[in-house]
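User: Quick sanity check before I run a bigger batch. Here is a single chain. Can you write out its predicted 3D structure?
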Amino acid sequence: DVWILFAWLMFLHSLLSENLIGGEVTLPCRAEGYMPLELMEWSRPGTHLQYVVIFRTQSQDLEIPEQRYEGRVELKDRENGDVSLVLKNVTAEDGGTYECYVKRDTDRMKRAIQPVSTIYLDVLPPPPLGESVCLWIRTSSSFLILNAGEFFNTRINLILIKQFIADSQW
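Assistant: Done. Predicted structure follows.
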C-alpha cells in the first residue's frame, strides 16, 4: 500500500511539476498516419511569435525562427512519427496555445498541411518554499497531507511518508 502511494505521489509530482517555470514540458504530437513527412511545424497562433519550430525532411534541419526558443526546443523522435515538442527552461511567456501541423511527402496539393494537435500550455510557478498547501491523496484506508512547498522541491523522504502512515490512527 505504501509503494502504491509512493508511485502515485511520483506520478502526481511529474504531472504537477511539468508546467513549472524553469522546468521542461513535452507537448504531444503524433504523426504516424502522416508518414513520410515532408514538413512539420509547431506554431503559436495569435502571437507575434508565429513559428516555434519548422522541420523539413529534405534538409533534415530543425529551423527555429525565433531566437528566444534557440537551445530550448527539440522534437522527440521525428523518424518514428513522434514530433512532440520538448520545451526546456519554461518561462511564463511560454504559456498559451501551440499547434502542430504536418504535411505528407505524398500530398500533391501545395497547401496540404494538416493540423494534428492543438495544446494549451498553462505555465504555473512553483509555490513559495515553506508555504503550506494541503494536498489530499486518497489511499485505501487513509488520507495523507503534505506540505506542497516541500513536495514540489522533492524534499520528501520515503521513510517519513512510511512512518507517517504507520503512526496514523486513521
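Residues 2-17 form the longest helix (16 residues).

User: Great, the batch can go ahead then.
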